[in-house]
Structures are given as C-alpha cells and as structure tokens.
Design a protein that fits this description.
- It holds the Pfam family Pyr_redox_3.
- This protein is of the alpha/beta class.
- It has 2 domains: 187 residues, FAD/NAD(P)-binding domain (3-Layer(bba) Sandwich); 173 residues, 3-Layer(bba) Sandwich (FAD/NAD(P)-binding domain).
- It has 8 helices and 22 strands.
- The strands form 7 sheets. It has a 5-stranded parallel β-sheet, covered by helices on one side. A 5-stranded parallel β-sheet has the order 9-20-10-11-16. Strands 4-5-6 form a 3-stranded antiparallel β-sheet, with no helix packed on it.
- A hairpin with a 4-residue loop joins strand 5 and strand 6.
- The two termini are 22 Å apart.
Length: 371
C-alpha cells in the first residue's frame, strides 16, 4: 500500500507527470508493465523519428541534448526518456501490469496482475492513446497463403526482401513503412481507402508543426483557409497518384476528428516515381493475394496492416463509466464527479503542435492541481 500519487504507465506521459510533480515537491510512484522507461520506444520501427522539433517535444524541465538533431530518432527518444527518469529520480516499478482500478472510500485502489493492490487519493492514467493495436478481420483471410501482420510488429524491411508487400492504410505509420520498404527495394503497394490530408514536414526550412500552431491561433475559418492554401501549394493535386484529398483542412481534420495529417517524408516522391503503387480499399483476400474494391486482383506475399490503435482506459474501470469520446479517449485531464481523483494525460489528439507538446502542458496542469 502506498499513498503517493500513482501513475499508470511510464511512457512520455507518465514520465512527464512524474517530473512535473517532482519539481513541485510531490512524490509519485510509476507502474510500468514493460521492463524500462518508455518501453514502446524501444520497439518502434527502426527508421522512426519524431515529426515534431525537439524544442517543442521535450518533457517538463529537461530539454533534449544540444547535439540531438532537430527531429530526434527513435533511439534518441528512448535514451532521453531513460535520462528523464534518472534526472528526477523517479520511482519506477517495472513489470507491473494494472488489471483494474476501483473506488476505495475517498481514494482509489489499483490492482496488479500479481495480485497486489495499492491505494492512493490520486491516480494518473498515462497508458497512451495507442495502447492496443487495431487488427480488423479481413474477408477471405483464412484462405490467404501469405503473412498478415499489424504494423506494430514491423521493425525494418529485411524480412520482406524479395517479396510483394501490401501496406493497408496510409496514415503516418503506413506512409513511412511503405517508404522504408520501397527504399530497401521491396515491391511495395499501399491500399488507401479514404481521402487523406498530406502535408510536408518542412516548407522552406520551416517546420509544419510551427506553422500549424501559428494558424491555430487565428479564427478557425481563416486558419482553415490558409491551411488548405498551403497544403495545395506545397503538396499539389494528388488525384493523378490515385489519392483523394478531403474537403477538410488539415487543421480542421485534427480539431474535429483527432486524425493527424500525413507528414510526408518522401513517400509521395516514390509514388510519383512508380516505386510505390497505390490501390483502393481491400474487398477480399484471395489464396494468392488481394482483390481491391475496383475489382483488380493482385498477388502479394505479405500484408502489413497500418490500421491504428485504440486506448485501453475504460477496460481498467469495471465499475465506472469514464467520460470518454466515441473512440474511448478521455475527454478531460482532471477528472470530475465520479472520476474525481483521476487524471488523464496523453489522450488529447486534437491539438496542433504534436502529442509530446500537449503531454508536457497536461503534466504541468496535473502538477498544479495536485500541488
């Protein structure tokens, strides 16, 4: 039993809260189901870099090292998270998976997979918006002779050498995995079912992140109009590539749906060069490949499903209906009513500027509230 603030998850959100609390003189204990701080960052695909600049991606109180590149690579982020935990001497308990959280008098009780329980007046949920991979069932998949993997399992292109690979979905993960495969010489196709907003990571040396944050300060109609103009000017008409662009501006799409625009790192150039093929949605799998919604059939050796993730927050509360949206994301940072004493950090996907920037702000909010 402990009475300090309990933080569930030691990824960027949990560590940020722990650091902000430490600066306020408030002790905390972090429960992490994995073996290290920022466990997920040790397992992302190898080429991954932040899409946001390091100055706007650091957690409270500790900037990235001066020699870190503008867009920090995966291993650099993992090293930074470990250094952050050490810097604030955070108490992390590894291999501690939480099974349920229940009300206990004026506080809360956290039950662990090993049968132990811990009580506190304040519980911070920092398990992330991408806790559980979404793995849809595909028509005909039981008869398909190749491999089907969720993008969560992708590390690099080497296991797919000499194969024909279909990437299903072209969000940021799908676009970057397709780029990684094609650059390694793998025959790569991407299936894109819906219209997508695509923006450049940088325009004339200026990060799109900073531009988006500036546009968001304008009245929405003005910011949306300028966003569409900039998108069309820098990316152009994608129709000849087999891609559709939504009527929503990138900012409005983020604001209303929480869906981040695709940050292009070179995928469009390889599509234009014919090194990545574009197809519509999947109708059904066949023994040797895929039939698409336009009736075309093609052979593939492997499918990589870049079909996203979902949060796993509500499942931890068997006796409480959390204030969540249609996607299961908590609507508030500081719980109220029946959720008083609960705090939710790292689930806000609708703000421009990137999730790490949002996490840092939310961590400071939690620390101020608890102090």
């Amino acid at each position: 039993m402990v009475s300090d603030v309990l933080i569930v998850g030691a990824g960027p959100a949990g560590l940020a809260v722990g650091g902000a609390l430490a600066m306020a003189g408030q002790p905390s204990v972090l429960f992490e189901r994995g073996p290290s701080a920022g466990t997920a960052w040790h397992h992302h695909y190898a080429r991954l870099h932040l899409h946001t600049v390091k100055e706007l991606s650091a957690l409270p109180g500790l900037p990235f090292p001066p020699d870190a590149p503008r867009y920090v690579p995966r291993q650099g982020v993992a090293d930074y998270l470990a250094a952050y935990a050490a810097h604030y001497r955070l108490e992390l308990r590894y291999g501690q998976a939480v099974t349920r959280i229940v009300r206990d008098g004026a506080g809360w009780q956290v039950h662990m997979v090993d049968g132990t329980a811990h009580r506190s007046h304040a519980i911070v949920l920092a398990t992330g918006a991408n806790a559980t991979p979404v793995r849809p069932a595909l028509p005909g998949e039981t008869g398909f002779g190749g491999r089907i993997l969720h993008s969560h399992a992708y590390r690099d292109a080497s296991p797919f050498a000499g194969q024909r690979v279909l990437v299903v979905g072209m969000g940021n993960t799908g676009a970057e995995i397709a780029l990684d495969l094609a650059e390694a010489g793998v025959a790569t196709t991407v299936s894109v079912r819906s219209p997508i907003n695509v923006v450049r990571r940088d325009v004339l040396g200026r990060p799109t992140q900073r531009t988006a944050m500036l546009l968001a300060k304008l009245p929405p109609a003005w910011g949306d109009r300028l966003g569409v103009w900039l998108r069309d000017l820098t990316v152009g008409d994608l129709t000849p590539l087999g891609l559709r662009t939504p009527a929503l501006s990138p900012l409005r799409q983020l604001r209303e749906t929480g869906r981040t625009p695709v940050i292009d790192l070179g995928t469009l150039d390889l599509i234009r060069a014919g090194r990545i093929a574009v197809r519509p949605g999947v109708r059904t799998l066949t023994p040797t490949g895929v039939q698409f919604t336009d009736g075309r059939e093609e052979a593939f050796d492997a499918l990589l499903l870049a079909t996203g993730y979902r949060p796993a927050v509500q499942a931890l509360f068997p006796d409480l209906a959390l204030p969540v949206d249609a996607r299961g994301l908590p609507r508030e940072v500081v719980g109220t009513g029946d959720a008083a004493g609960l705090y939710f950090v790292g689930f806000e996907l609708t703000r421009p500027g990137g999730l790490l920037n949002t996490i840092a702000d939310q961590a400071r909010t939690v620390a101020r509230t608890l102090a």
